[in-house]
Amino acid sequence: MNEEARAQQDEPELLRDQVQQVLRHRVLVGGGLLAGLLAGTWFAVGSAPTYEASSEVLVRAATINPYAAAGISVDKQINIGSERQTAAGNAVAARAATTLGRGASDIGDLQRHLQVTNPPNTLVLKFSYVAGTPKAAADGANAFAGAYLDYREKQTAGTVAKMVQGYKNQLDPLAKQRESLLKQIDRLQSDGERGTALAAQANLLSQITQLTNNISELKALDTTPGYVTVTAEPPKDAEGLGTPLLIGLGGVLGLAVGLLGAWLRMIFDPSARSAGTVARALRAPVLGVLPKAPQEPLLAPDGELAEQYRSVAFRLAYDRHFTDRRRLLVVEPNGEGTTAPAVAVNLSACFAETGMSALLVEADLRRPGLAGRLPEAPGGRAGWANGRAAEDSPWPAGRHLTVDAGESGTFELVPGTRVPHVARTLTSAATTRLIDQADTPNTTVVVLAPPVLSYADALALVDRVDGVVVVCDPRTTARAALERVRELIDGAGGQVLGAVLHPSGHQRGSRRRKAEAAPAAAAEEAPGTAPAVPHDETVNLKTLSSGTR
Length: 549
Fold this sequence. Notes:
- It comes from Streptomyces anandii.
- This is Lipopolysaccharide biosynthesis protein.
- The chain is 52% helix and 13% strand.
- It is of the alpha/beta class and 549 residues long.
- It has three domains: 56 residues; 180 residues, Bacterial polysaccharide co-polymerase-like; 274 residues, P-loop containing nucleotide triphosphate hydrolases (Rossmann fold, 3-Layer(aba) Sandwich).
- The strands form two sheets. The chain has an eight-stranded mixed β-sheet, sandwiched between helices. Strands 2-3-1-4 form a four-stranded antiparallel β-sheet.
- Helix 11 packs across helix 13 and helix 16 packs parallel to helix 19.
- The C terminus is likely disordered.
């Protein structure tokens, strides 16, 4: 339950850390914002303004008396969907083109600028026309509305004329037949024949009357197709969002794309990037973040950098695990820089400043170099580890130095020496006795080891030192590498006390000096020097170390 509560409390912190990591990608966020503003400006300035005008037409059916059709449903008289298709058709567009003074080749272009809609539950057709000028938009909408009404009226009038002509074609033979029947009745003398003829005459008269009435009704039809209820006027404002809104919308979309890119960059970025990520990967606190000081010496003078080292040292001094044994191992994950030696040296100086007897052990036996870079105290004489070395190894016995740390006092240094068998030397009894000097009251031993993931040397010392400080640059160190470091240290029986972070520019001068000194170091290295121990030897070194102790 406590773990669940702790996880819930860490969620806001994790979200805050992710937001900060996203905002660190200022180039992506700023680039997306700039691209969006430029795109919005291009659309606002580069696109031509368009204007839209609308006219509305009330559609009606042809009828003799429009006021007497109250009982007839309008929906049954007019199919408004069909009327909308007719209004957008080629026939109406051809008439509108004639009204606008356009040719037959422009009919398709006119139709592309027209939109005919029908408001729900009405018999109204809305003609919306888009053009480059206000007047052209209004003229186009009115032309289409007038063309539709004209087309419908002519269509209705033509239908009526055809029906009248059809009725007349039926009426003429009946009229001739009636005249012939009248002449025949005048000649008949018999009452029976005369009655039959009169009945046929009445039947013909009824048909003639019906056809005549039909013709009269058709001629009396009101063929008006509808009325223009709204006449299009030239619009005052152009269509679209407007220049300021387009630029603002482009900026918002660009910012969103930039944030998305930064978020994707953060998700797929293997590096730790932030102190929170480093702390979660190592499951240990960040003890300090060194300021950017590319040309600082190995021993930091008084200033911001020195105060940061003192802060780290005091945090370690109050760490219960460290105070129990006073042994500290300083390492880097991948050897991405030379900051670990500076951290080890300055922590030793800080411990000496607090009145403790500090011993710095340079356990980097592959690339030693602290002895030539630290000032030796005049008349100093090391009193640590004066026992004899093994017959086949000159380390750790040999020349030990007393380092002058200025106002912080002095601390003793066991400089590293190239040896033919690094693994055997680090797991020797002499090395164990050297580190066990921390058991003396008021003493501290700081051990500097090679990078954990590059060599197995640090893991061979973990069970003798226990407390480990990891030095890394979060921008160049992968989260997986930090997790691997923690797993290896835990598996070797140690504990990560914390991490010291440094920016990318820290110790660039040291890297330059290291590159310049590399040829000389290679020339001085003995032909029998042991090669770098691969990481696979960790288990063997651990077993050997345990057996030695």
